[in-house]
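Request: Not sure, any thoughts?
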Amino acid sequence: MSEETFKGFGINNETKTENNVKMLPPQKLEKATAEFPSGYSFPVGFLVNVVATKITTKNEEEKNVLQFVFVDQKKRQYIHTEWEIKSDDVKYSTKIESLNSRYAHLYTRIIGSLEGKAIGADAKSFGDYFAKLAEPFTAAKETISKKPFYLKLIYDNNDNLGFPYAPNFIQLKDNTACMLEINTKYDTIVQSQAAQGIPGIAGATPAGDVPSFENGFS
């Protein structure tokens, strides 16, 4: 009996290994432009989802997270994740202040003023807190999902690509110049040689740790 060859059989180095292609970091230009006076071009993404959920870590510990999912026009993705902070963490005050600052930066740049608001002030737990922080973005989804934003994405010490620890890292793309900047002393936009080509490294959240966002906002 002759062997039959089936179309599509065979795995090689061109076989797709991930469903979510990661967004790219800023790129240094030959010279500054009217759009990018800093001399760096920044990626542009649309906020397609904000969700409060739980993630099981590599240590099999379940943690509450708040995730902001951005997608560019080529369907490349960046997921910004805020993590629950343990109440006994010696740096709790500093970490929660930084978390709140990043959230406030995202809120004011994407939705609008925080004047007169106290979002999440009555939360009873981190899961509840993140759920309340997600609510305004879900309520405004029809408007904000259509807006393009410049994103400042840099590599951290573990070669994960994401927002800096503190603002500024997002700006609405309109008819004004992009005022985001790269500080070459602190901001890394080139992945280390050791991490290049390793699956799961060049993203803020490891592959498989996030739910599907194909249907937009939860």
Observations:
- The chain has a mean pLDDT of 85.
- The longest strand covers residues 44-56.
